[in-house]
Design goal:
Strand order of the largest sheet: 1-2-3-4-5
Low-confidence stretches: 302-306, 309-320, 333-342
Shape: globular
Number of helices: 12
Strand content: 5-15%
Order of helices and strands: HHHHHEEHHEHEHHEHH
Helix content: 25-40%
Structural class: alpha/beta
Length: 342
């Protein structure tokens, strides 16, 4: 039997990393049926006819189709909504020019960062929510800039992080492994954490579909399981299986997925990056053996304007958001446009 491979399109597919998923899941690259391949062609053709010419590569088409259970009409609308949002939000310019110079100060309250890889080769994303203090943080930055940083990090996950991880592992990796540390998030903050998930999910679910590999909620406080039981009622069972709610005794399960040498000491690993793991951005995407310049860095991609720390406290003029769709995957509670805590 021939090895599985992506049914590619020479016009749009220009990949310099592996393009076959490691597991034989229906609808994933290298494991599609003739009907699914036809749906990719149908979706792409309809989008071309509607005037779109960017991000029509096969991997992207498959992600949008999987997010909408291979309903071409729903996937088409999802893609169109995403492109409209990207233009209104200025994503292409943001990813090339955003300078989050206040990041070290923000991280004193709310660390959120990519750090090395799990045992499957995927980027590990970490958030610590217990120290969030919006009053203090808004003296350092703005809600708008926190949301802009969220979007830039999503773009950098897609390129260069995932391609570098795919090259190193020798197989296509399209998802990340997320660790959300809820230490310090007591009963009084549970509703706020739920608010973060709901509000930021509008961006992650509608505009960056199919990026969740595993999610570990560690140091979950008493009562959080009840909150999650409500949330998971809106999720696909396949997605629910990827989410692990753990208490303080999380280390053995977490270390079964993340190598000890890649996990910061704070969480029971042995990694102690110079300057701090949170600010190191360590991973294959920093290794010249695996990393290549991201396609969005191409100067031919468009003109640019440096985005500095402009005073603003709202994001409504830039980011019209939709309620998350039930079939989409949840993402970490990355903060952007949250209302202040009560």
């Amino acid at each position: 039997m021939a090895a599985p491979q992506l049914n590619s399109d020479s016009k749009y597919d220009d990949y310099d990393y592996p393009t076959t998923s490691p597991t034989a899941q229906s609808g994933h690259p290298g494991h599609t049926t003739p009907e699914q391949d036809a749906q990719v062609y149908q979706l792409r053709t309809q989008l071309e006819q509607a005037g779109y010419s960017e991000r029509l590569d096969t991997l992207s088409m498959l992600r949008f189709l999987r997010a909408r259970k291979f309903n071409v009409n729903l996937a088409k609308q999802m893609f169109i909504d995403c492109e409209k949002w990207r233009k209104e939000f200025g994503v292409d310019n943001l990813v090339r020019n955003f300078d989050y110079k206040e990041k070290p100060q923000v991280f004193e309250y709310y660390p959120q960062y990519y750090h090395k890889i799990d045992k499957d080769g995927r980027p590990v994303y970490i958030e610590q929510l217990g120290g969030i203090d919006l009053t203090a943080m808004y003296k350092i930055t703005t809600a708008e800039r926190m949301l802009q940083n969220l979007v830039v990090e999503y773009e950098k996950l897609a390129d260069p992080r995932l391609p570098a991880c795919s090259r190193k592992s020798g197989q296509l990796l399209e998802t990340s492994c997320s660790i959300l540390d809820l230490k310090g998030v007591g009963l009084s903050k549970i509703s706020s954490v739920y608010g973060y998930v709901k509000q930021t999910a509008a961006i992650s679910q509608n505009y960056y579909p199919e990026r969740l590999g595993h999610m570990y909620l560690i140091n979950a406080p008493w009562g959080f399981a009840s909150v999650f039981s409500v949330i998971k009622g809106f999720l696909d069972p396949v997605t629910v299986a990827k989410i692990h709610v753990l208490g303080t005794g999380y280390q053995s399960e977490l270390l079964a997925q993340v190598p000890k040498e890649n996990l910061p000491k704070l969480f029971g690993g042995t990694c102690d990056c110079k300057g701090s793991c949170a600010l190191s951005d360590a991973g294959p995407w920093q290794d010249p053996q695996w990393s290549k310049p991201p396609k969005w860095a191409d100067p031919k991609a468009g003109t640019s304007t440096t985005i500095d720390n402009e005073p603003s406290s709202t994001i409504s003029t830039h980011a019209p958001q939709k309620e998350p769709q039930p079939s989409s995957e949840p993402q970490p509670a990355r903060m952007g446009d949250q209302a202040p805590m009560g």
